[in-house]
Amino acid sequence: MTWKLLTTKGDVPAGRYGHTIVINEENTKVYLFGGYDNAFGLSNDLYELDLDTLTWSAIKVIGGVVPEARYGHFSVLRKDKKLNAQLMVFGGRGAKNVLDDIWVFDLKKSKWFELPVAGEKPQGRYGFGAFVSDKELFVFGGFDGKTVVFDDIWAINFMSSKRKWRHLGNGGFLERYYQTITPTPHGIVIFGGRRADHTLCLYVEEGINRGKHFQIHELRSHIKKLTLSQNLAEEKTIPLWINAIQDVSNKSSIPNLSLFNKKYGEEICSAYTFQQNLVTFGVDGSFFSD
């Protein structure tokens, strides 16, 4: 197996992540929705790629009703009772909060509409695993964007005239988000994901500054842009801690974290522990208390 980079033309969408891509049954069209672009932020635009000509087209939506811009959502192509192709989108993370809505785009009419659902529904989330089987959408886990990593399983028959979510418990499913999930004839295969939550958002996943690189000497002003708590911008502990991480050989430069941890209810590991974890595991495990 070898990879090949294809050259496309037309209305080529900006680079992004957290978007979704789906392909039609004929394997001739690909549809891209949403995602996050570091230059322009969240997106709710919709593109079509013709696989025969490798030409992108920005789909023009008729009417002013559109779903909120998002990333980390789920999309699937389905057909309505008249066999018209539709793109269905669930959940994701928006500009201000996580989402629990279901939207449908009618490819024939070029219109969006929100799918009404009665009764209890899953809490808003992103980074969850999902798939469609026998006209039902199944959702596993996800993250609420604050502290909760879900271990629940939900299902909904989106073709029913009385659409209602069903809570299926967890069935032994361990909490996680950003996992992959694939239904097979032998059962559901789930791989990977993250189980730890984020209790201190020093670097929040929203805003135009996310994804950019910042210099240590400008850290205070950047923290003010990146954090939910403006008070953190005045803390001297964070720049000292980051500088200590960079200076592997100088243990004396490690700041005292006890006052900071007590004030914010956090347990930031020492810079030396961070260094050792980085060398040992090649990851930033134990960055914070997660």
From TrEMBL:
Record keywords, A-Z: Kelch repeat, Repeat
One Pfam family in the UniProt entry: Kelch_KLHDC2_KLHL20_DRC7
InterPro entries xref list: Kelch-typ_b-propeller (IPR015915)
SUPFAM superfamilies xref list: Kelch motif (SSF117281)
PANTHER family, per database record: ACYL-COA-BINDING DOMAIN-CONTAINING PROTEIN 5 (PTHR46093), FIBRONECTIN TYPE-III DOMAIN-CONTAINING PROTEIN (PTHR46093:SF18)
Descriptive protein name: Uncharacterized protein
Record lineage: Eukaryota, Amoebozoa, Tubulinea, Elardia, Arcellinida
